[in-house]
Amino acid sequence: MSTTAPADQTTAKVYPPSPEMAASAHIDAAKYEEMYAASIADPEAFWGEHGKRIDWIKPYTIVKNTNFEPGNVSIKWFEDGTMNVSANCIDRHLATRGDQTAIIFEPDNPEEDAQHITYKQLHVAVCKMANILEDLGVRRGDRVVLYLPMVPEAAYAMLACARIGAIHSIVFAGFSPDALSARINGSDAKVVITADYAPRGGRQTPLKSNADAALLHCKDTVKCLVVKRTGGQTTWVEGRDFDYNELALEADEYSKPVEMNAEDPLFILYTSGSTGQPKGVVHCSGGYLVFASMTHEYVFDYKDGDIFWCTADVGWVTGHSYIVYGPLANGATTVMFEGVPTYPDASRFWQVCEKHKVNQFYTAPTALRALMGQGNEFVEKCDLSSLRILGTVGEPINPEAWNWYNDVIGKGKCPIVDTWWQTETGGHLLTPLPGAHALKPGSAMKPFFGVQTVVLDPHTGEEIHDYPCEGVLCLKDSWPSQMRTVWGDHERFEKTYFSDYKGYYFAGDGCKRDADGDYWITGRVDDVINVSGHRMGTAEVESALVAHASVAEAAVVGYPHDIKGQGIYCYVTLMNGVEPSDDLRKELRTWVRTEIGPIASPDVIQWAPGLPKTRSGKIMRRILRKIAENDYGSLGDTSTLADPSVVDDLIANRAG
Ligand code: WT7
């Protein structure tokens, strides 16, 4: 289903770590083998030890208490320990690195000054934000929605919630007012934190007015805290809206971190699945932080003094774990970039690397493909000599993009860590370690410590022990940053992840495992597509389309797209009497953007007088995918269709 079929492993070139890298990295090949074996042989002992990498108020005595059995799924780590995430990310560094930069903020506009925020300054800012939230009535366990640009205040707000025990739920600033109100209501949030505008790529998204529109559909007790980013005009509702910058002037500079249980929720993050509306993935405090900080250190070979840059947005899990929580728990310097890779031009990423002397750079294959197409002169004019480790995430990386990353960006001397994980997993599950593994372009390589990946036969549900093999990717046992539940719907949690293959966590991806035991992700095996590294449920786009008055029925599938990985291909059946037209196509595209957000924009809309259905009325998506992929040779058996002629019509009128 992925556009990037894994390379033929027998012929692929292999890139072993350089002797210097193997010698200097935290983990070399022998150490990986030893630690991995120990982590599987005795998870209690392994995590009992590594759980100590963060500070506990009351140390845990119970390490692991997890159950994947359908009907009784329950995941708890370090359950009798207490701690505070914010204190771990800030306070414990104050004595040793108070004047070290915690966050480098690089604004959208390169003419605007970057900000260097030290751990001491971060402490003050987070305490102030915590006090402001408490003054607005936020208490331990309450939900706070963040709808913010990539500004330091986003990190302050996350850490302030963690400090007082509130649960944050970040909504990516590219989402529409409808998506925002659904998430505010879904978690019954007390406060929404937003900004006047979000500058991005030279344009400005009117976040506050989006929030105003969303709040029309929320309880009138929900308060809105507004960060001034551009100073642009906004409307103001007295009694509901509060000015963060004004309140911060007066707010107290100290707030005591609340003693939280390891299993108290830290955040909710909505993500798309194959059915229904997005679900609120719940992550808890202790296990999440242990795993995020440990993967950040080992996967990126982070060392004291390094400058770490993850280009994600805090609206996605990558931003949670590898811009904020992992790096700050490790006392790192983390870069927060507000802009986009191609503004003002295609050298922006590389200029930022040069300007801030970035050592670890972590981005998505879609960004690399877009930049690769712009030509190497944008890279060559920048000094990238500070780079030591490169990383990718979000989708399989095609060998061309991998080679470009390796040769042109890394100059052949920076290992590339291809990290496979999910919103649900909280941190990296499959990845090479820079000093340990011989890299293969396109392979996410090996399980991280404590991670028990298995390949199952999709038909029998049995584990496949052969090498090489192909099947569905599952997890045999828990790891500390596994999601704990779906917010408000534990049954959906069990049904989504634990019911297809009994006794396993089912990730939704297919994979191959080669003769060396290295994993190659082949893409989603469900009705989820991966657009520019963002997960999109086809059902979500379909329900947005059918909400339009002219649409009778819609079926959405992914198709290969050069830059995005997968594009969104929509088959639309119009209401009786409605005439298809290019204007209507445009209107539907705009409609989906306003219903969900620009990331859900249909790439192709094909008018479909009929959809291929079985006699029982089930849409045969397999056929629609083949047509969208322009692959008619392998349509398979169409004899079970209620009306096989529908397929000929769709092929004859294939769009694009
Ligand atoms: C899905 C999870 C984890 C943060 C970004 C996306 C795909 C992710 C890789 C990779 C191949 C990958 C999978 C996964 N995916 N990383 N390195 N190689 N596929 O998080 O939105 O939760 O999506 O992204 O299909 O299931 P997400």
UniProtKB/TrEMBL annotation:
Per UniProt, what is one Pfam family of this protein? ACAS_N
Q: Which cofactor does it need?
A: Mg(2+)
Question: For this chain's UniProt record, which GO biological process terms are given?
Answer: acetyl-CoA biosynthetic process from acetate
Query: Domain AMP-binding enzyme C-terminal, which positions?
Result: 540-618
Q: Which Gene3D superfamilies match?
A: 3.30.300.30, N-terminal domain of ligase-like
Instruction: Please provide, in alphabetical order, the Gene Ontology terms of the cellular component aspect for this entry.
Output: cytosol
What PROSITE patterns does UniProt report for this protein, alphabetically? AMP_BINDING
Residues the record lists as binding ATP: G394, E395, P396, D418, T419, W420, W421, Q422, T423, D509, R524, R535
Establish whether keyword ATP-binding is in the entry.
Answer: yes
Q: Where does the AMP-dependent synthetase/ligase domain lie?
A: 91-478
Q: Which GO terms describe its molecular function?
A: acetate-CoA ligase activity; AMP binding; ATP binding; metal ion binding
Q: Which residues form the Acetyl-coenzyme A synthetase N-terminal domain?
A: 32-89
Q: Which UniProt keywords apply?
A: Acetylation, ATP-binding, Ligase, Magnesium, Metal-binding, Nucleotide-binding
Q: Which residues bind CoA?
A: R200, G201, G202, R203, T318, S532, R593
Catalytically driven reaction(s): acetate + ATP + CoA = acetyl-CoA + AMP + diphosphate
Q: Where does Mg(2+) bind?
A: V546, H548, V551
Where would you find the membrane-spanning parts of this chain? none
* Source domain of life: Bacteria
E.C. designation(s): 6.2.1.1
- InterPro entries registered for this protein in UniProt: Ac_CoA_lig, ACAS_N, AMP-bd_C, AMP-bd_C_sf, AMP-binding_CS, AMP-dep_synth/lig_dom, ANL_N_sf
Q: How is it modified after translation?
A: Acetylated. Deacetylation by the SIR2-homolog deacetylase activates the enzyme.
N6-acetyllysine: residues bearing it: K618
Q: What does this protein do?
A: Catalyzes the conversion of acetate into acetyl-CoA (AcCoA), an essential intermediate at the junction of anabolic and catabolic pathways. AcsA undergoes a two-step reaction. In the first half reaction, AcsA combines acetate with ATP to form acetyl-adenylate (AcAMP) intermediate. In the second half reaction, it can then transfer the acetyl group from AcAMP to the sulfhydryl group of CoA, forming the product AcCoA.
- Family statement: Belongs to the ATP-dependent AMP-binding enzyme family.
- Mind telling me which PANTHER family this protein's record contains? ACETYL-COENZYME A SYNTHETASE (PTHR24095), ACETYL-COENZYME A SYNTHETASE 1 (PTHR24095:SF14)
Q: What is this protein called?
A: Acetyl-coenzyme A synthetase
The organism named in the record is: Sedimentitalea arenosa
